[in-house]
UniProtKB/TrEMBL annotation:
Entry keywords, A to Z: Membrane, Transmembrane, Transmembrane helix
Species of origin: Elysia marginata
Protein known as: ABC transmembrane type-1 domain-containing protein
Chain segments carrying region Disordered: 1-32
Top-rank lineage group of the source organism: Eukaryota
């Protein structure tokens, strides 16, 4: 008898056969017992619940991944803006410092030149 060639509910599912422990319980006449039908219904409900639970888990995982991606993109955008602002501020500070130094040097040079040409001063050649 080739058990693999027959269906799950074939009539060779009897006590002592290798598949008896996995088979649906039957009455003596070979019909399905109410307990077997109830067991099948419960098993089917468990499978459906597990599938629904699996779908729920997939949905939750997708939502969490989307939220994480959005947060990472927003944080990256904010970081880029902050870096740009810092660069602009540093450039402005450098420009202001250079302008102040140039103005101080020019004013000092002019003052030194004025002092050289004051009346009563001797010119140093």
């Amino acid at each position: 008898m080739n058990l693999h060639s027959k269906g799950w509910n074939s009539n060779d599912t009897v006590r002592g056969s290798p598949r008896a422990s996995h088979a649906t319980p039957r009455t003596m006449s070979g019909n399905f017992s109410p307990a077997g039908r109830i067991g099948n219904a419960v098993t089917e409900l468990k499978i459906q619940a597990a599938f629904r639970g699996g779908v729920a888990v997939v949905i939750v995982v997708v939502v969490v991944v989307v939220i994480v991606v959005v947060v990472v993109v927003v944080v990256a955008a904010v970081a880029v803006v902050v870096v740009a602002v810092v660069v602009v501020v540093v450039v402005l500070v450098v420009v202001v410092v250079v302008v102040v130094v140039v103005v101080v040097v020019v004013v000092a040079f002019c003052e030194i030149k004025k002092l050289q040409y004051l009346p009563g001063r001797t010119q140093v050649q």
